[in-house]
Amino acid sequence: MRSVVYTQTGPSSVLSLVERPVPEPGPGEVRVRLVRAGVNPTDWKFRANAKNGPWDEVVPGQDGAGVVDAVGQGVEGFAVGDRVWTLVAQWSRPGGTAAEHTVLPTTRVAALPDVASYDLGAALGVPAVTAHRALTAGEDVTRLAPGAMEGRTVLVAGGAGAVGNAAIQLAVWAGATVVTTISSDEKAALARAAGAHHVVNYRTEDAAAEIGRIAPGGVDLVVEVALAENLALDVEVLRNRGTLAYYADNGGAEAALPVRAGFAKNLRLQGLLLYTLGEDLLAAATEDVSAAVAAGALRVGAEVGVPLHHFSLEQTAAAHDAVEAGTVGKVLIDIATDDTGA
C-alpha cells in the first residue's frame, strides 16, 4: 500500500511517500481502506515537535474516512463494507490516516451515516469531538441532541476555525443561541454560514458591550481558542456559574485570570485535550456527532463556512504546510475513490 511516513521529526520535508505491506487487524481491531484523510494543526505539530511517540516510523494523521475491509478476532458492531470515520488514529500509535489503509481499535472508529460524504467523514474527528467536549463541559449539558441546549447562549471565539465552525453547527442543532467573535468580514461570512445567530467583530466593535446587549444575563458557555488574549473578556460576559472551555493556546501560552471576578461568578474553567478525554467522553462524542451528521446538522463545504481544500497523497507535505499557514477551511487528502466514485 502507499503510505506517507516520517522517520525523524522536523519540517514537512521529512515526509515521504513509500510502499508498505497492507497491515492486518489484530483482536478488537478493524482495517479501514481510507478514501479521505483530514489534516489538522495537531498533525504538523506532532511531526515538527517530536510528539510522535517512540516509533522508528510514523504515518501521520488522526482523522479519516473510508470502508472497513477486514476485521480482527472478537470484533462486534463492525463488518466488512461498513463506512466509517476515524478519531485519534495516530495517538499512541505509529499508524495514522495518511495511507491507503489503517488498522485501529474499534473505539477509534465510528459508523459514517449513509447521508454523509467521505469529505465530511474525514473532517469530523479532531474538530467535531473537540467541539462536543467544549459544549458539554458545563454543569447541566452532558450530551448533545435537539433541544439539549434550548434557552442557552454560547459564545464561540474564532467561529471561522474548524473547531469553532463545528461548535457553532452542533450548538445550533442542540437549540442554543450562538454568538461568535471574528476578526474580519470574510470570517464573519463563514461564521454566519455555519449558523451563528450573532457575529461580533472584536477589532471594530466593543465586544463586551455588544455581547452584553445580546445576552444581558451573560452567556452560559464560552468555547475558547485563545485564552491568553480573551480571558478577561470571557470572564466579563459569562453568567454566574457559567463555563469557560478552552482547547488551544493561540495567542499565548500563559493567561492572567481576573481572580475576584472569576470566583465572584462561581465560574468553571475547563481545559480540554482530545487525546486525554478518556473512552467514556470519546464514546459520547462519537455517538452525538454521528447523530448530528445523520440529521444533516453537521456539514462541510463553503456553503456552511468550511471551504474544502483537496490534496493528493503525494502532496501530503503541502497539505501540512497549508494547515500550518492558517488556511481557512478544511484541508483534505484524497487517497482513493469509493466504489461509486465519491
Automatic annotation (TrEMBL):
Record bears the keyword Heme: no
One Gene Ontology term of the molecular function aspect: quinone reductase (NADPH) activity
Tagged with keyword Oxidoreductase: yes
SMART domains: PKS_ER
Domain (Enoyl reductase (ER)) ranges: 10-333
Coiled-coil portions: none
Enzyme nomenclature, EC number: 1.6.5.5
Stored CDD domains: zeta_crystallin
InterPro entries xref list: ADH-like_C, ADH-like_N, ER, GroES-like_sf, NAD(P)-bd_dom_sf, Zinc-ADH_QOR/CCCR
Record field: transmembrane: none
Class of enzymatic activity (EC top level): oxidoreductase
Keywords: NADP, Oxidoreductase
A Pfam cross-reference name: ADH_N
Top-rank lineage group of the source organism: Bacteria
Annotated protein name in UniProt: Quinone oxidoreductase 1
Species whose genome carries this gene: Nocardioides dokdonensis FR1436
Gene: qorA_2
